[in-house]
Amino acid sequence: MEYIYFEGKIVPEDEAKISVKTNSLHYGTAIFEGIRAYYDEETDTMWGLFFKEHYQRLFQNMKVLNMEIDEDIDQLIQITIELIKKNKIKSDIYIRPLVYFSDLKISPKLIGYNAKITIYTYPLGDYIDINNGIKAIVSSWTRLNDNMIPPRLKVAGAYVNSAFSKTEAILSGADEAIVLNKNGYVSEGSAENIFIVRNGKLITPPLSDDILEGITRQAIITIAKDLGYEVEERHIARTELYVADEVFFCGTGAQVSPVVEIDHRKVGDGKPGKITKQIQEVYFNAVKGRIDKYKHWVIPIK
Ligand code: PMP
User: Is the Cβ atom of 212 under 6 angstroms away from ligand 1?
Assistant: First the structure.
């Protein structure tokens, strides 16, 4: 039996239920996070990754949606640790906090309702391939923008856009979608940020190009700079993807995933790139607490 944090308590899964009348279910106004914890056999330790950063983003997102909950960031971190212990988890997992308006009332608005948080965990290996390289297409769907449904938010409704592009990619025989924003520039994948490499330099779209403010994106920028690479945040045009030396996605779920084909054109020589692999190696050591200077990214849970 799995345990879930629900309505202020850790309860068995079958007690964590909401009504079909729940307001956020109807209007896509739930805010969520996707957090990872990795199991390291060598040290028999679960390593919680960027717990604080994810809960900080959750609170920022909640602020935009006028949501308030009873718990604070430190309490949510403790609850997450407790959940991992109570569920006796010894494998790589995804942690899903979800904040929703729990009122059983009709009307899409952000005032006059109560917000609640639930947190559950589930096993997650690689969300997309990280070894052989994946195929991507540029989606025919346009990324949302800040004055519609802000892509800065991990808000449920925004993921209709992700679902359209991801489905299009799968139906086209690809693994992932790259979505252009309203100005025609590259924004991100369906659920991951994107980097390209040109002449030894990393380039990624700026926060103003309708992307999620990715926590992994920031970690990759740090790793790349520490390795001595230049990182530029600027617009990326569609065809720059075709001429890039390397392309990779990153995200909590995606981790660091090399892209080897875009719109039926090989990226570089059609194999995972050298710099991508170098960054990937550092990332996977960092998330298991093996690199001293990145130890503050993780919390050991025994
Ligand atoms: N973009 C989108 C749309 C996402 O859903 C995610 C996954 N949270 C990311 C980027 C990557 O963000 P993070 O590194 O914070 O997981």
Answer: yes
